[in-house]
Structure formats: structure tokens, C-alpha cells
Amino acid sequence: MLTQQQVLEGRQQWLGGGYRLFYQEPLHVVRGEGVWLFDSEGRRYLDAYNNVASVGHCHPAVVEAIAAQAAQLNTHTRYLNDAIVEFAEDFLTEFPPELRNLTMTCTGSEANDLALRVARQITGGQGVLVTRWAYHGVTSALAELSPSLCDGFEQGKNVWLIDAPDTFRRQGAFAGGVERALEEMKQAGVKPAALLVDTIFSSDGVFSPEPAEMQRAVAQVRAAGGLFIADEVQPGFGRTGSQRWGFARYGVMPDLVSLGKPMGNGHPVAGLVGRPELFAEFGRRQRYFNTFGGNPVSCRAAHAVLQVLRREELQQNAQRTGEILREGLLKLAARYPVIGDVRGDGLFIGVELVSDQRNTPAPELAAFVVNQMRHKQILISATGPAANVLKIRPPMVFQPEHATLLLETLAGVLADIPL
Amino acid sequence: MLTQQQVLEGRQQWLGGGYRLFYQEPLHVVRGEGVWLFDSEGRRYLDAYNNVASVGHCHPAVVEAIAAQAAQLNTHTRYLNDAIVEFAEDFLTEFPPELRNLTMTCTGSEANDLALRVARQITGGQGVLVTRWAYHGVTSALAELSPSLCDGFEQGKNVWLIDAPDTFRRQGAFAGGVERALEEMKQAGVKPAALLVDTIFSSDGVFSPEPAEMQRAVAQVRAAGGLFIADEVQPGFGRTGSQRWGFARYGVMPDLVSLGKPMGNGHPVAGLVGRPELFAEFGRRQRYFNTFGGNPVSCRAAHAVLQVLRREELQQNAQRTGEILREGLLKLAARYPVIGDVRGDGLFIGVELVSDQRNTPAPELAAFVVNQMRHKQILISATGPAANVLKIRPPMVFQPEHATLLLETLAGVLADIPL
């Protein structure tokens, strides 16, 4: 085992300059189990951040599925194999009947990038609407519509940025923004291809707007000839508690749904679900072959995750434990005015920190809290354009006792804030 | 287990329209071991096509590495972890000392797409030179420079297509084409970002040009301010026999090297190797975070593949067995004039089929041979703009006895050709 210093130096020496670490004091992890991560000195950390290990770190059912299939067969989709068909048939029952086709990829970036390709081909348009602090992935096409990716963001010329539905500061700005952007596109002679949103607006600061707001935005895009792509890479798979998919909370029907992070509990598997007629039209003009996408090991991993999600009723747990967390956070908000807002659904929670009664964002405070929590062995992070929103998004096996530990620790950190 | 008919119907019903199958009679695979794939009725097929299962289907050392690490920890690179550092340090010894940084992705597409992002940012140029029948991946940015992807290929406006170094028909056309394209770019006011080539020109028909030809092309691009990106997704990892990397056969030094398919023997792991100063400059302006990229399971899988490659001396085997294959194919060429050319290096072989003495491409014949071989339980495919080049690219554990079986079977198929 390497020392922490060796890992730090090794990263510095061997890894490309784009890498970043969490926390002022980076965490050297060596083992994971359920909601716990263990560092190289045997200390355990309550993981209240990682949505990828969605059914719990190293869930035995997923590990076993991967190990068994890897020993049996791992090849591509140009041969017939049972795994992808068994998975697709079962998985698609989780979606509305209109969304009956699955194309598998390896990452959420690949899923969103494919969604763009399909939308642009089908509509004949190039224009894409995304929120002002969106994140949709790392490919060239996605980087130019992911403002949160970097300081020197270069907005694509066919990309329109709209305000997120900020339920804290600017209620109702979203659909109006979509309307204005569509009008601008029209004037610029750009045909809209799609409205692409993370349905819980994770990087924008975690927002769940009123259904009517989302419905209006989606209707406007459709009327202008564009598609609605629901990016479920973060909110999907039951995390929001009340529904399996973030979009379902709004009563809207996407044309395409992109999936990623929690789909394989860490195994690189992702996909794009959508209306069969869209994929059929896309497929008439071109093939889509992703060498690793839909291989039997990835399908068995994703299938095992789905089965655990159902068997252990993790969506219901997200609802219940999420409620306990939010209630506790609201109590803290009543005691500590630095908590300007508590929001989110299920086990996807945003806690906005502010520095005064005008709700001025408090990014330094958020960084302080995140790092103090890490010091006290609770892992969370911060999000939003000002990075002042605590992001609490634990594995979905998070239990009430873990919520209590988080809340008590956070209370201690808030009590320690230097004023 | 599903029947073949059920799998076919399930794919039709549940999978997106972009999917395609190999062979007139698709193959229903259920198990893999070494160079063998087994179908649902227990028949075994000699796999002479799959370069992903590079160290042999279901190699126990790779399966064990995946299973052990998946049970221990699988998380992302914003924590410190030993696996990525141990892998990167060891892996980079396989490259020239100038190429000392690794950024990990999940697929070759992601690696090539990142290479484009880096090249475009570093050079400030947008122009990319690729070969006329190139394939570099499935993202939006790569699709517009991958003519072989589909019939309705839409060439990106900053993309210039150049002739591949066709050693059979047009010796010497490559560097001249690069020169002309750079001149055209200049006149069009497009600054070159990169020359991006698969170093064995797989989709163009499998070519290994003279080193001087490649050196001249690379020098021209450099002189014009562009980078040279070696796409090693297909030729890399020792497959060409004489060298670990396809580019090394030409005595050229890439700025960036993209890796994929064989890297994890089927596990979705890929990466981009390059000059540290390029990644450093890229990283100064933006982060690159790939959620699954560089996770400990993927790193252990890739590390196990590397160790097997060394321990079992598979590059040397590719050299030796490849030589036997080529010698046998040349003997067949002497007997059967439909074989116009035998080429390639190591275990990456192209056999060009022609219909007359003017070397007219014979795609129907190639399809006939590929399907007859499949019928006789030997798996190969066809490539090139006319799909008339048999592509023989087996797992690198392919032994002389397997080469003999392939050659005897091919001789039988060629003897059966309806004239």
C-alpha cells in the first residue's frame, strides 16, 4: 500500500493536469462498504456524497454479478447475447410506455452526447437550451454546453443559456427564460434541437421547480420543433424518493432520457432511453456501435443494481431517510441563519448557505463546512454557481441513524463557525 | 437461457435502431475462453477477430483482479487511491520518456474526443486531418471526422480528409495529401489543430506505410502548428508484433496517444497518454473529471492486462504467429488470384480480395468468405472503403495451431468460391 504522500506525488507526476482532488486535506480511501469509506489508517467516513455507489459501496450482489459474468463472457453487441436483452426488457418497465428503446453506452457523457446527435439529426436543428450553470459531460459537444465545467468556458455558438428554476431566489424564471431563448434562436436563424436539463438541476444548485413550470418549458420547446432530453444521470434511479426518475415528478414526458452514474454502482455503464421512432430514424441513417457499451458484464452489473434497488426498496428508503434529513436540516436552519434554504427531494438535498439577510451567497463558509465535516469524517460537497450550496447525496442505503450522525455533526460544525 | 429467436426479437423490440449484427446468420454467444467463443448449442468458434479480448477471453488473472477490487473499493479520482497511481507509473514505462502523463477515460471514443479538446485548446486551431475512411469514435465531435461510420456522413467544416497510405494501390499518396490539405486549410483560414490517424489505418483497409512517409506527414503538421495524435485504440498493446505501439514502427513521436479496446480485455477502460506540458496547459484552464474514468476497478483490470501481456510475452507471440499467418496467406495468394494483397503486422492482418487483374475490389466475395468462415466456425470480418479486405485480428494468445486451422479452413472456402 502506498502512503498518502506517495499517492499525491504519483498523481502529480503521472496523471494529466486536468485532475482535481476533493477537500483541503485530500482523502486517501482504501475500502468501501455500504455507506462507509475507509481511509488508509483505518478511519471510517460516512459517505453522504457519492451517488455512484448508489446501492452501497461494494454491494455483494453487484460484485458477484460482475465477477460471474466476467468469468463467463465479455464481448460486444454485434453478437447475440442474452444479457442485454434480459436487462433491456426488465429495465424499460421502469419507464413510461412511450419510452421503449434503450441504447447502451459506458458513461453519462456518452449518453448525453448521443442524445444530442439523435436530437440534432431528427429535428434538423442545431440549437440547444441548457441552464446557466449546467453540467452535462466532458465530450467536445457537451463541454460547450456545460458552463460549470471550467472558468474559461467557451459557449458553443448554437447554445443558449437559460436561468435555472431557482426556487430560492427567482421563482418562475425558468419557463420565461426558455421562451425568450427560443425567440432569440428564431431571430438568429437557429433551429432548436433540444432542451437538455438535469431534472434536479444539480450543478445549478439543486432545484425542483413546480410541475407547471417544467410543463410550460417543455411545451414551448416542442412547439418550436425541439426535443426534451431529461438528463437523469444524477437524479435518476429513485434517488428523489417519490419517483424513479426526476422528470416524473413534473408530469412531463421526455423524448430521450440519459442515464449514468448510479446505473452500475461504479461499474462503467450508462445508456439512453427514448422513443423507439427516434432511434429507428437515427438508425436508418447510421449505426451506433459502442465497443464496450452493452457488453454482458456491464448489463449484468446494471441488472443487479436494478434488482437490489427493487428488493431493498431503496427508493422508499430515499424518501423516508431524505425526509428525516430535511426535517433535521430545517431545524438547524431555524437555529442558524447562515442556512438560507433547505431543498431537494429524497436523498438529493441542497442546503444553501448565505452570509446575511439579503441571502448573499457564502462560498467560503460552504468550503469551511465541507472541510470541517470531512475532518469529522462525514463526506459532503458544495455546488451551485457560487459553490455555496451544500450537496448531500449519499448512497441510497443511508439509514435514519446515518442521518442523525450527519445532522449532529453538522450542528457541531455550524456552532463552531467563526463569526 | 434465451433462444436465438428470443434474443433476436428482444433486440428488435427493446434496443435502439442503431444496433447492427455480424454475419448473415448472427452468432448467439454464451461463453468465451482464450481464443474460443461458444454458442448456445455448445459449438466452439475460433475467434480470429476480437482484439478487445486481447489477452484471451475471460483471462483468469484479469477476472480475478476485477472481482477482488470490485469487492474492496470502487470510487472516483477525487479521492486519493493507490490503484491509478500504481497503474499509471507502471504503464507509462511502456512509452517514450516524452510521453509521461496519463488521463484515464472509459472508452476509446472518450480518449479521442479528449485528444481533440486538448489539441484544439493548445494550438488555438480547429482544423483536423483524418484519412478518407477513418473511424475514431462515436461522439458528436468524432462522428464528423469518421467517414466510415455511416452512409450519410456529414463531414465537419473543420475536417479535411486525406488519402490513407494505401500500400497496395497508391503508394506514397499520404504525405502528399497531408501537404495539400494543410495548404487548403491555410487558404480557407483554418488553423490546424491535429493530424489524427489510426497508426495501422484499420478502417481504411489495414496499411503500414514506409516510416519516411509517416515522418514526412508528421513533420508537415508540426510545421503548420498542429499536433500529431496517434490513435492506438486498434493497433496498440503489442498487436503489431515488432513494437508495443503502432506509431513506434515509423520512428515518429506523437504528442498524444489514445488508447482503448484491448486495454482492459473487455472491461470499459481507456485513456490518453501525452506530453505533460500539454495536459498541464489544458488543466490550467479546465478540469477534466470522468466519473468512472480511472476508478480502482478499471485500473486494476488494465494493470492485470498489462502484466499478462508482459508475463505471457504476447507481443512476441503476435510477431511469431502473425508471421506464420502471413506466410500461409501468401501461399494461398499464389494459388488464388482473388487474393490481391496480404498485409499488416503481427496479429493485425488485412487480406484484400479482388475480382480481376486490375485489382477491382470484390466486396461480395469478401462477404461470402466472411460468412462461409463463420459457417465453418472461424470468426473474421471485412474492412476498407469497399469492405473487400478480410480483417484478421485475433486475441493475442492465438497460437500456430490456430493459425493452421484458420488457413486450412480459408483454403477450403476459397476452393469453394463460385466462379
UniProtKB/TrEMBL annotation, chains A, B:
Family: Belongs to the class-III pyridoxal-phosphate-dependent aminotransferase family.
Cofactor(s) required for function per UniProt: pyridoxal 5'-phosphate
GO MF terms, alphabetically ordered: transaminase activity
Swiss-Prot/TrEMBL keywords: Aminotransferase, Pyridoxal phosphate, Transferase
Pfam family membership, one: Aminotran_3
Record flagged with keyword RNA-binding: no
Transferase listed as a keyword: yes
Source organism of the structure: Rahnella laticis
Annotated protein name in UniProt: Aminotransferase class III-fold pyridoxal phosphate-dependent enzyme
InterPro entries hit by this protein: Aminotrans_3 (IPR005814), Aminotrans_3_PPA_site (IPR049704), PyrdxlP-dep_Trfase (IPR015424), PyrdxlP-dep_Trfase_major (IPR015421), PyrdxlP-dep_Trfase_small (IPR015422)
